[in-house]
Automatic annotation (TrEMBL):
Keywords: Signal. It comes from Autumnicola lenta. Belongs to the UPF0423 family. This is Iron transporter.
Amino acid sequence: MDNHAEKEVGDYIISLASEEAEGTYRLQNGELKWNVPEEGFNTHLEIVVRDNKDKCFIPELKIKGKVYDEGGKFVVEKDFPFLWHPFLFHYGAFFKIPEAGKYRVELEIPAPEFHRHDEIKGKRYEKDVKVKMQIEMESGREPHGPE
């Protein structure tokens, strides 16, 4: 898949995937409501962070990222919150890119603050991580009904 990239960094395996912007449900006033991406948003960047030993998804991360086009021009800076998905938990964000193509993504992942069990295996994720990755990003919007 062209729109996928993966890299091992420290205790992590970081995977990126790009797809067209799509709607999501959000809890609003105690009720789930369907939300479409903001007008003009044309891409969705997904980030999966796994443990490099046991391959499990790592929850509760606070991921920040910057995106640059192929020429190095700054495109956007975003937080990448957790997004529930029926078969792939991930972090992600919607935003606008000028066009489909190659982009550089720079991520900062602070060391998580959650407790870790196991006196030996639990000593993981103690350092902040910064990583630069290249990815082919898609542009477009999934059909959402009325917008």
